[in-house]
Protein: UDP-glucuronate decarboxylase
Organism: Populus euphratica
Amino acid sequence: MAASTVRINLDGKPINPLTILMIGAGGFIGSHLCEKILQETPHKILALDVYSDKIKHLLEPDSLEWAGRIQFHRINIKHDSRLEGLIKMSDLTINLAAICTPADYNTRPLDTIYSNFIDALPVVKYCSENGKRLIHFSTCEVYGKTIGSFLPKDSPLRQDPAYYVLKEDASPCIFGSIEKQRWSYACAKQLIERLIYAEGAENGLEFTIVRPFNWIGPRMDFIPGIDGPSEGVPRVLACFSNALLRREQLKLVDGGESQRTFVYIKDAIEAVLLMIENPDRANGHIFNVGNPNNEVTVRQLAEMMTAVYANVSGEPALEEPTVDVSSKEFYGEGYDDSDKRIPDMTIINKQLGWNPKTSLWDLLDSTLTYQHKTYAEAVKKVISKPTTS
Ligand code: NAD
Ligand code: UDP
């Protein structure tokens, strides 16, 4: 971006260049946010993470036009005294760091709770004490299950949006019992939201909370055995991509009846940039960021991904592309699920005028094109290797 271009925000005010501390910059969302900020704004990024693979293309070579505007700090926020100094050096802190794959919630509940609550505490505290603005990434999972899911299966009220649309300032947070450890993540995220909100109310912390609703796109998670552990279980996009790349059946947990709305990462990142550059409109708010028009059951997602991947790869789909598995078999004891997730868009529309644009078919088309180009050869090589006994 040309340094001389004056950019203005939604209220017509010039946007001054910011220094942004991005914690978790090396992850899926962080990598897209770094890309957007470097390509379209004059802001500087202090990129903090324990990994940098997903932003390597932004850090090297030194000749890149934004080379002076991004600095990588390999830091684990669990135990590093440099954290407060970096927050002090920045105008804004964005915290993305988290354990956020459902396969971990019931199998590593302690790590999940520490990561999503305890490790986020110093970030909130240092921002509050030093008068720094914070954008914190929470999750749509804080809503838990819909009210409608407790109605009888044949109740006409299940069709009434009042029983399922999720509203930031009105919907309750409905989790399962404690032995359903799936909810360790949602509960930790809820508590950190409450703490941030209280810091705002009692100590004047300038904050924005983001609740992503299934953002998907290139660089999400990993393909097991290629750029992540062979036995690892990533989120659904990568699980299904992995099966398609290997020509295996896509596993539908408990029949694939749960419903999700998926939003393209590039649409969602536009919303985050609006929050960054319009603090007067974003501070003190919690925002749903999702695409209510892209709702499918997990089974429908599997069918659509199968059709899109056949187009992209030129290889016909399997005759029986899916197989049902129980959640106990797939995730182990303590798994539970959100039944349906439709974001209410009133607040983000009113404050930031943001709307998602990309249809589910289109976003799967670009994402699976990326998956095919990035992984197909590597997967073929792994599959063709004789297994050692
Ligand atoms: P991700 O796992 O790709 O990224 C998280 C990054 O944080 C990783 O690069 C990880 O190395 C880093 N990190 C974790 N703990 C750290 C620590 N102690 N110190 C330093 N770095 C650490 O996940 P993502 O999809 O990019 O999600 C980012 C945030 O958005 C998370 O808070 C997540 O809960 C939230 N979220 C995302 C989605 C989605 O649709 N992708 C949905 C709901 C919530
Ligand atoms: N799921 C599935 N097969 C898989 C992976 C996930 O049926 O191989 C289901 C999972 O049970 C959930 C949905 O897909 O109902 C979305 O899972 P994801 O891991 O993306 O996270 P969530 O949306 O639950 O946070």
